[in-house]
Amino acid sequence: MDSNFEVIAEPNRRAILSLLASSERSVQEIEQRLRMSQPSVSKHLRVLRDAGFVQSRVDAQRRVYRIRPEPLKEVDVWLSTFRHFWSTHVDALERHLDRIAQEPRGKGKKR
Amino acid sequence: MDSNFEVIAEPNRRAILSLLASSERSVQEIEQRLRMSQPSVSKHLRVLRDAGFVQSRVDAQRRVYRIRPEPLKEVDVWLSTFRHFWSTHVDALERHLDRIAQEPRGKGKKR
DNA sequence: CGAGTATATACGGGGTGGGGTATATACGGG
DNA sequence: CCCGTATATACCCCACCCCGTATATACTCG
């Protein structure tokens, strides 16, 4: 798994992250709430941990997982390149795109 | 391809989107700038278009592609669930996480 | 219309990721 | 210690994605 984007491409992993967004959880809690098999949860958590999306602490026999924000922050940084497309100046942008789309063609071309 | 996240999981597709972020481009321009084969570019553009990330207009024999922000906006919305982890109140959050991380067995460690 | 250019699709192959089952490892309590 | 619980890993299999090559389609212009 070589990129953060591939990590969050998997729906179950996104579900795990969303679940952990509210609070930390043990493997079993994740398993029950998301109705996934235990090995599946463990494997996804392995991927998430290796990529730095989560970290675990030990609580008796349990491993409690919680979010680590860094990789998500990196995704956010990538997105920021595009954010001007919708965040502000939307109307001006739309007008701009429309204008580009109707650029006058040099050769008279029917449409 | 059933989710926006899978679409942007592919590095070449992210490269295409990043390229189109600055301005619209023909297939050939993308092909040359990113050193990808023409069929590969066309196929990735197909995926991007089907998912709504780009749209094309016709310019003589060329197809000129440009960004459509909606799917990226959706990704941004998903991310917003996690943004409080790093955007503001960072210090309070870090203290909170550190406190949680304190294991009952007095193995205090700092990053 | 025919040639040339630009883009899209068909097809086959190789690599990989995710699921399930079975098993291994860690840990705590009695 | 030993047992039960909690979690991690091994292994196999299947589906799917991406690539390259070859071919088809679209459009323009002479």
Summed up, the helix count of chain A is 6
* Unreliable stretches covering 5 or more consecutive residues of chain A: 100-111
What is the strand tally of chain A? 3
Oligomer: homodimer
Helix content of chain A: 55-70%
Radius of gyration of chain A in whole Å, from Cα?
22 Å
Describe the structure.
The structure is a homodimer of 111-residue chains. The first copy, chain A, has 111 residues and is an alpha+beta fold. Helices cover 57% and strands 13% of the residues of chain A. The longest helix of chain A is centred in the last third of the chain and has 14 residues, at 70-83. The model of chain A is unreliable at 100-111 (pLDDT under 50). The A-B interface holds A 3, 5-6, 8-9, 11, 14, 17-18, 21, 24, 57-58, 66-67, 69, 72-73, 75-76, 78-79, 81-83, 85-86, 97, 100-101, 105, 107, 109 and B 3, 5-6, 8-9, 11, 14, 17-18, 21, 24, 57, 59-60, 66-67, 69, 72-73, 75-76, 78-79, 81-83, 85-86, 97, 100-101, 103. Chain A binds a DNA duplex (30 and 30 nucleotides) through residues 1, 6, 10, 12, 26-28, 37-47, 58, 60-63, 107, 109.
Summarize the structure.
2 copies of one chain form a homodimer. Helices cover 57% and strands 13% of the residues of chain A.
List keywords for this structure.
3 strands; 3-stranded antiparallel sheet; elongated; alpha+beta; disordered C terminus; homodimer; DNA-binding
Write the layout of secondary structure elements.
Two copies of one chain form a homodimer.
Chain A: H1 4-7, H2 11-22, E1 25-26, H3 27-34, H4 38-50, E2 54-59, E3 62-67, H5 70-83, H6 90-101
Antiparallel strand pairs in A: 1-3, 2-3
The first copy, chain A, binds a DNA duplex (30 and 30 nucleotides) through residues 1, 6, 10, 12, 26-28, 37-47, 58, 60-63, 107, 109.
